[in-house]
Amino acid sequence: MTPATVVLIPFLGALGIALAHRNPRLRDALCWVAAVLFFIGVILQVGPVMSGTGVRQVLWELLPGLDIAFRVEPLGLLFALVASSLWLIATLYAQSYMKSLGYGHLARFFACYAIALGSAAGIAFSDNLLTLFIFYEILSLSTYPLVTHSGTDNARRGGRIYIAYLLITSIGLLLPAILWTYFAAGTLTFAEGGILAGHVDPFWIPVLAGLFMFGIGKAAIMPMHRWLPAAMVAPAPVSALLHAVAVVKAGVFTVLKVAVYVFGTDLLSGSGSGLWIAWFAAFTIVAASLVALTLSDLKARLAYSTVAQLSYVVLGAMVATPFAVIGATMQLALHAVAKITLFFGAGAIQVAHNRKTVPELDGLGRVMPWTFGAFTVGCLSIIGLPLFGGMWSKWYLVLGSLEAEQRILVAALLLSSLLNILYLLTIPIRGFFAPAAEGVPTEGIHEAPLAQRVAMVTCAAACVVFFFWPGPLFHLAGMLVP
Amino acid sequence: MAIAELMPFCVLVPLIAAPVCALLPGRVWPWALALAAAAASAAIAALTLPAAMGAPLSYAFGNWPPPIGIEYRVDAANAFVALLVAGMAVVTLPWAKTSVDAEVPERQGTFYALFLLAFAGLMGITLTGDAFNVFVFLEISSLATYALIAHGPDRRALLAAFRYLIMGTVGATFLLIGIGFLYMMTGTLNMADLAERLPAVRETNTVRAALAFIIVGMGLKLALLPLHLWLPNAYTYAPNFITVFVAGTATKVALYVMLRFVFTVFAPDYSFAVLPLALVLMVLAIAGMFAGSWVAMFQANLKRMLAYSSVAQVGYMVLGISLVSVTGITAAFLHLFNHALMKGALFMALGTMIYRVGSARIEAVRGLGRVMPWTLTAFALAGLSIIGVPTTAGFISKWYLILAAMEAGHWWLVMLIVITSLMAVYYIWRVVEAAWFQSRPDGAPAVAEAPLSLLAPTWLLVALNFYFGLDTRLTVSAATAAAEALLGPVAGGARP
């Protein structure tokens, strides 16, 4: 299967889902067909990449030297694998969740969901900045209806902040950065070792890097992070798959892609021109963790945790030593798996007990053991403790920062792990051991529907599996550095 | 018959068809004749463009050789504009049938006769190689346009037409004064001849004044800020079909005339040296881009919003000219063509909506996305083109404009173009949000999707926006040839 076909599957799926809006059964079946086909399509790309060839496909030439083209390389493949496999699990979860809470307009919802995944695949497989930019914008636009899905004033307000931040940063900063790159390097096509070396005055490299990194609003470096908490008005499956996986990971994926294939790791680590952004990222990591400590709304707390975790990737990409890039790449995958578990948990709690704030969850762990068990695993993986996959990315990021002799960045990473314990791990601890909050049943099991539990436990299990078998992940990440 | 002899029929066919059309009864025949005339004209224009890419075509009327007689002289620049004007007439006329039946139920013979006159006038301005002939055709098309605007269903159309008449006449008079001065100094009206004779007398105040008069006169017809005041009302209150056609063609032709005088008649090394033209045009263009987009962001009437957006788009074209390079002029020609496509599509989608709901106000759009999905989707897609999203025609022209700005070393212009594009995002998004994310107001009458006769032409134009965004060979090569025809094939540009 060519990369273009793989990208096309979710778009065609979206069309089918939208057309089947009068027939719920057919609609649900189509959701599955699209997700499964998409997953198979991505898996089929593994072989060529591993053998080192990777398919390249020029779809259309807009102007000479400016085309829409796809190429599958290790980083894109990794992102596509994460997105496509988690889409399968999220489909299971979302169908159950949306029906349990009685949401309407499900055809529009699942169609936009599929389009968002298709755009994520387009971003993953893009061969040049123009193609990437097109899919980046489709992703922003297709997720707006999902954020505002409930249609309340609150949702609309959140949606406005969401779309405004993403569009203004991308058109106002990212697009000029792309144009600048084109005029400096004469090409937008990603290449091993970067395309900018020798074309831009070293004085301007930090500025250009700043335009890129702050322009990629989806990576949510402070002060471009406000959209992420605003997007939490969305239904839980949207927060889970999109705002923990597809959208934010598209952001940090773009960050990595730009760092590795546009600037080139040699240029970044050699000149240290990305370091000032790494400092911003370190600040974001600590500041977002501190904000998360003060929030009692569960999803808002998770959102700020996401802001902090995304900056790990930005930090790694900007430090740009081999270990840092490997750590950042692994973080992209491992954080996705852990964070989707947490959002699934938040949604499950809402379905089963309609509770949204942290103090209301005291004692709930005893009646929702599966949910809180999975939640605990997710927390531990994000903190980065051994026995959980999340440890590997933290490990390599710290190694990479040491390699670059950036002790303060190392300190920020470690401090953040401690803060994580405070604001994340306390949730399941109080859930299991604190006296029951008002209205929480004290006996028996009151769990979320089975489909949601299966989804959560699968993701939690993946967190553990990645600790023992990080090999394939490490192999893909290792292909990025010389 | 050689193409050079066929080419004048681009103008003659609609001109001759107009009086016949006025005599035809009913609602079908006048329209059918107008469509046939426009199609014939467009077919000839399509044959002319490839022939004119090489050496210019020349035709002497009544066998009076130039510079005595009236000469039609066609190179890549005017062949390109002529094809655009005729093409827009052919694409919009099928749409016009249903819309005009609703808005101008009576005396359609006169209406279509006036349309043919306006159309013939625009074609004449484009093709002629005679300066005075430009003025004559300008008046023919302008007078017809005033009358057409006055056909608008709202009584305010009369005032809008009257205002346009005053401003338009001032503009045409300025042009006439300028041409008069040139005739005084050189004794000729033929443009090619003028270009040869002017260098001898170029250091006189009369010639300088002539240039200034012509630029201001055309600036008025072009709606270059601050001479744009006639445009918003004229576009808002005209019948929808006239808005579509005029928005797509009239300002473009005025821009062409300005280019022709500045570059061919006066030669750029004179025009841009004797007046601070590059600076003035750049400042006015930027002011137009910002003021137009800014005002558009807050309009409650969507026709007026698109009209102000046109003021901004004219700014992009003039900005390209102010850079005085082949790339800059190419960008101007590309945007001239692409803007006709995108604004035509937007006004058609809007007109289709108005046909059903009877109002152009933003409140009327609320919740329409579900009721009239095809119409509103067409609007949103054409909106992408005006924003300049890659894969649309709008992207191509903005890309060339940015290319030209970078070539000239104007970094900051890129930022300004990006910012005004963001403003376009806002005013298009407003409509999208109202249509899909708000619900129909209580008590709003039930409406159905528009008839196919309106939707099909609208979607054709939307599709063209994407076609020319993907297949750029025709537009880019024609626009480059047009720019080279005006500037001479110098790479890099001829900045004085």
Please give a structural write-up.
The complex is a heterodimer of chains A (482) and B (496). Chain A is mostly helical and 482 residues long. Chain A has helices spanning 3-19, 24-44, 46-50, 74-100, 106-125, 129-147, 153-185, 205-215, 227-230, 236-263, 265-271, 275-294, 298-319, 322-353, 369-383, 390-403, 407-433, 450-468, 471-478; strands spanning 56-63, 66-71. Chain A has a two-stranded antiparallel sheet with strand order 1-2. In chain A, a hairpin with a 2-residue loop joins strand 1 (56-63) and strand 2 (66-71). Chain B has a two-stranded antiparallel sheet with strand order 1-2. In chain B, helix 9 (205-222) packs antiparallel against helix 11 and helix 18 runs antiparallel to helix 20.
Which structural class best describes the helix and strand composition of chain A? mainly alpha
Count of DSSP-assigned helices of chain B: 22
Q: Shape of chain A from CA axes?
A: globular
Given helix and strand content, the structural type of chain B is mainly alpha
Largest β-sheet summary of chain A: 2 strands, antiparallel
Q: What's the assembly state of these chains? A: heterodimer
Share in helix of chain B = over 70%
Determine Rg of chain B (CA atoms, Å): 21 Å
Q: Helices and strands of chain A, in N-to-C order? A: HHHEEHHHHHHHHHHHHHHHH
User: Most extensive interface, residues per chain?
Assistant: A-B, 23 and 22 residues
